[in-house]
Write a structure and sequence with these properties.
heterodimer, A: about 425 residues, alpha+beta, Rieske Iron-sulfur Protein, Naphthalene 1,2-dioxygenase Alpha Subunit, Chain A, domain 1, 2 domains, eight-stranded antiparallel beta sheet, four-stranded antiparallel beta sheet, 21 strands, about 25% strand, globular, B: about 160 residues, Nuclear Transport Factor 2, Chain: A, six-stranded mixed beta sheet
């Protein structure tokens, strides 16, 4: 390590402290764009968002405008959304279906393979101009795992398969909800900003220590709705049985016994009596296909997964796919979708979406309080020079396999990886 | 001929202004009295404003019971996103009756809702209120309240943690 460390990771004193400059420095934000977003595999989108040849989504990934599309040969592609001529974005719609992408500036047009297929007045070029070399550029790597597509800007990066490491099993647990292993990103996107550093969202997504205090009104809502919530006798941390697990390469997850109801497949009164037999059938299919133990894990555990650095898949009150980007040190832009099985019928789909809104999203009964908490942290961090260190030692000193969801083992996992990438010799 | 036939635009304006005042003053229990027993409250996602909440992820898709729980939550000091409460001020105009159907009316109104929070300047929610109203003698009850936000995404508007 040639650079200074941003963490104090003292395994003898069981003390873990984080330098708060990590949340506030614009210089570090610039360095993150290079060392984190420029080197890691970053989530682009899901196959189900572009079902048919010609379907596309245009979005920002790792700060870059990209096109995520399906070509006529049914292959999924990713291009930088930048004209090779003068650099304008060539796709302005957020989504749709096209045969080619035509830049409005001088009408250079690219097909779904990124090939430059048309430009007005080609006869005016006399030198080495070669349209075959002027296709849309692609990221260094682009690959998928179970329909989740990622790009990587670093030519020397490990394969996606190696990169995802232990996160794969936790993606499998989500995908196994579907009999065919096929999930849909459901229509309707939640996009909102938070006036907080993006890494606060990583922490918040897996930090179950905050649940009873930040989300007391959600817990009251659950109780008002007939869900049995037992506060543990010791401490104030829910749920009773939950783990925090490091999955390698900075990925992390919680793995909790369910207490709050799951559309697949643990009934609570909010879903209504009519849903009971339907959900029992879903559960039965899981057991027949996966065996009782695996079915129990799929149906009756809640898992909040972070794929380093900025993809969160929450499999809790419903399944959310959530990604977020910094726009400066003190702001982030969040995009969230709901994920459902392709097999579920209209009632099950509606139930899943309704369950989503009980907790998640900018109008949910919990997420707005998370947003508030994160913004309050960022406000408080204005005193970072005078009050320099954040405390993150909870649970430290216990064996890894005894780390609770309410400990901070998983947060430390993230920060250790972040610190490593930010300080290693380049 | 239903009771909706003779409803004047003036009486609709008066009703909508009354509702806006209750919401801006955080008189949410009084506001709830304006709702039918089967009332719904929807905020569709910004990218799919015309969609159906049963197959599209909404920002808010409350049935009557969820509205009741939302109000309980909003009046609880532990609802951190709204404590202290946002200050809001709604401007409603371009009010029009779009359908008359026995004793029910469809009404649309443009709105700007200015929201102020501590240490902040202003967040401006702009959009269209779409109501289904039930006529009750010389008053109305809200059967459906759909709030379409014009912004391409919520973005800097952040959460819709208050009743928009």
């Amino acid at each position: 390590m040639t650079e200074k460390s941003y963490i104090i990771d003292d395994k003898e004193k069981n003390l873990f402290l984080l330098d708060r400059i990590a949340y506030v420095s614009e210089d570090l934000h610039d360095r993150e764009m290079e060392r984190i977003f420029g080197r890691c595999w970053i989530y682009v989108g899901h196959s189900s968002e572009i079902k048919n040849p010609g379907d596309f989504q245009s979005r920002y990934v790792a700060g870059r405008p990209v096109i995520f599309c399906r070509n006529q040969a049914n292959e999924i592609k990713c291009y930088f959304n930048t004209c090779r001529h003068r650099g304008a974005v060539v796709c302005v719609e957020r989504s749709g279906n096209k045969r080619n992408f035509r830049c409005v500036y001088h009408s250079w047009a690219y097909d779904l393979n990124g090939k430059l297929v048309g430009l007005p007045g080609e006869e005016a070029y006399f030198g080495e101009f070669n349209r075959d070399k002027l296709g849309l550029r692609s990221p260094a790597h682009f690959d998928s795992y179970k329909d989740f597509w990622f790009l990587c800007l670093d030519p020397d990066a490990p394969s996606l398969n190696d990169y995802l490491a232990g996160a794969k099993e936790y993606i499998d647990l989500v995908v196994e909800q579907s009999p065919s292993g096929t999930m849909d990103i459901i229509s309707g996107t939640q996009e909102y900003d938070i006036a907080g550093n993006w890494k606060l969202m990583v922490e918040n997504s897996v930090d179950d220590y905050h649940l009873p205090s930040t989300h007391s009104t959600w817990l009251k809502y659950m109780m008002n709705s007939g869900v049995k919530i037992e506060m543990p006798k010791e401490g104030l941390v829910l749920p009773k049985s939950g783990k925090a697990i490091a999955l390698g390469n900075g990925h992390l997850t919680t793995d909790n016994l369910n207490y709050r109801g799951r559309p697949v497949a643990a009934w609570i009164p909010i879903y209504g009596e009519k849903a009971k037999p339907q959900m029992a059938a879903i559960r039965q299919e899981l057991e027949e296909r996966l065996g009782p133990q695996r079915a129990e894990r799929v149906a009756n555990t809640n898992r909040n997964l972070v794929v380093f650095p900025n993809l969160v898949i929450n499999d809790g009150s419903s399944v959310t796919v959530r990604t977020f980007y910094p726009s400066g040190a003190g702001n982030m832009h969040v995009t969230a979708w709901a994920l459902g099985t392709v097999e579920e019928d209209q009632d099950a789909r509606a139930r899943r979406l309704d369950a989503f809104l009980t907790f998640y999203g900018p109008g949910g009964f919990a997420t707005p309080d998370d947003v508030e908490a994160l913004e309050m942290v960022q406000q408080g961090l204005k005193n970072w020079r005078e009050d320099r260190w954040s405390e993150m030692s909870r649970g430290m000193g216990k064996p890894d396999d005894e780390q609770l969801n309410s400990d901070e083992h998983h947060l430390r996992t993230f920060w250790r990886r972040w610190n490593e990438l930010m300080t290693e010799e380049s | 001929m239903g009771t909706a036939e003779n409803v004047s635009i003036e009486s609709i304006c008066e009703f909508l202004y009354h509702e806006a005042a209750l919401l801006d003053e955080w008189k949410l229990e009084a506001w709830e009295k304006l709702l039918t027993d089967d009332a719904t409250y929807y905020v569709p996602p910004n990218d799919q404003p015309e969609s159906d909440h049963r197959n599209t992820l909404y920002t808010i898709a409350d049935d009557r019971e969820r509205i009741r729980q939302r109000v309980i939550r909003l009046m609880d000091p532990s609802c951190h996103a709204e404590f202290p409460h946002s200050r809001t001020r709604r401007m409603i105009n371009n009010i029009r009756i779009t359908e008359r159907d026995d004793d029910e009316l469809s009404v649309a109104a443009n709105f700007v809702c200015y929201r102020f929070r501590r240490h902040e300047r202003v967040r401006e929610y702009v959009g269209c209120y779409q109501y289904r109203l039930v006529c009750q003698d010389d008053f109305f009850l809200i059967k459906n309240r759909r709030v379409v936000v014009d912004a391409e995404e919520l973005g800097s508007l952040g959460s819709v943690s208050f009743i928009l």
